[in-house]
Design a protein that fits this description.
Elements: H1 5-33, H2 38-64, H3 70-78, H4 84-108, H5 124-147, H6 152-166, H7 175-181, H8 195-216
Helix pairs in contact: 1-2, 1-4, 1-7, 2-6, 3-4, 3-8, 4-7, 5-6, 5-8
Length: about 220
Amino acid sequence: MMPSLAKRGVAECLGTTFLLMAVVGSGIMAARLAGGNGALALLCNTLPTGAILTVLILTFAPISGAHFNPAVSIAFALRRELPWPDAVAYIVLQIIGGVIGVWITHLMFELPVWQVSLNVRGGAGQLLAEFVATFGLLLTILGCAARTPAAVPYAVGLYITSAYWFTASTSFANPAVTIARSLSDTFAGIAPVGVVAFIAAQLVGMLASVILGRWFWRP
């Protein structure tokens, strides 16, 4: 039987919390230890993110499906594999979990809890990058789920690890992550002025992947 919505919602919230702790925490640690080397800092931010995604999906997929991403939840709702009321609950709890993860990270590193990022990210290239990052992420999930479901955790972790480097935006590919990172004025942050555009590009990428995925892999 499918776990209750309460269990699934807590899994989504907790998983997104840990995801943001990994993203923001590794970014803070990298900035402190890399000695100003931007490439090394990005690498140190990349590896924990890909690793924690793999672990979190392996842990929580049997409970909630391990979305941790509103774009993924919307995609599965569009494919009629997740009821819309459940998708809305997932999205709300993902956003809450992301914000909690950022705040816990600030506390761990003894930084002010409430912050607003000043790291401006924008422009046509970065928006195209977010479209590409989300499009590729959803295709990875849909393709693996259709043929080799056991590979999803590893494929997602590897995809995000790679996309950090081949996309100009460092592959946010997640509206909840984007919102949460706007509340951290650290290495991983994004200024609020860029959040809406980033999310719009992510959702367009998600829609494109759902359309192409339906053609490639019939539900």
